[in-house]
Amino acid sequence: MPFDGLAAPVAGLPSDRGEDGCVLRVKDVLRPLTADASGAAAIIGFASDEGVRRNHGRVGAAAGPLAIRRVLERLPVHDEAPLYDAGDVACTDGDLEGAQARLAEALAGLMGRGLRPVVLGGGHEVAYGSFLGLANHLGERFAGTRLLVVNLDAHFDLRLAPRPNSGTPFRQMAEFCASRGADFRYLCFGISELANTTALFERARALGVEYWLDEEMRASDAAHLGAALTQRLIAADAVYLSIDLDVLSQAVAPGVSAPAARGVALEIIEDLVDEILASGKLALADIAEFNPALDRDDQTARVAARLAYRLLRKPR
Q1: Considering the entire predicted model, what is its pTM?
Q2: CATH number (domain holding residue 73)
Q3: Residue 119 near residue 285, CB atoms below 8 Å
């Protein structure tokens, strides 16, 4: 469990007993959010799959934040720099819009204190809550900020629907930007032709979305992908990164609502994440669509925790 501020927990895991060096794990540096917390990274959960339910997907992602934490806390760390846990925002009553608003408020508060949030989902409806949090944080500066939205995903999530759901968040972002007189800069990596209709491709083109198909993201394309991302990062003031775990192959991430037959290799996804981190412009990130009920031997939980760790404290 996270450090409770009352007594220092025993460092490491039982298997670390007898070691004569540092055995710190994430659990040993992860602390509940306090009033004086600042200048570090923080995790916050979005325990919701209401958007997945509305999108006629396989529910269960509401349990994702807890499952990711359990794996994340066991990972080793190599310094004592603190991490903060801001708890969970849960959607238990079907009021997705209310839950997204609460998440946005919490994220704006974290960023206002100089903390960089990493949101653990939850369905991809988390993305609109994350985006609203950044917009709230920027306030009157929003329209003048060159915000780059990067989505690592098999899907555009630009759907039209009677109610917002896990397939609509980036279309909602486009509408929000238009209402504020701001440019919508949306960059997608890993789009699957077989997971998006013609209507969605046409909507993406109409909105000026830049995207790379999963078939265009081979190891041999890595240098080209990195150069393209770098060029967009240079032109941005701030970056919001969303990672939908269904961008990965089902063989790597089976525990998602809509598993991918092909997907993108994990090492390519990690390279893109590293490129964004290296820019120094990442304002916040989220990890979406982990469904523990569909996982095998915590395989997807381990991948999600690895990505969260990378975002929180980049490995050496």
Answers
A1: 0.95
A2: 3.40.800.10
A3: yes
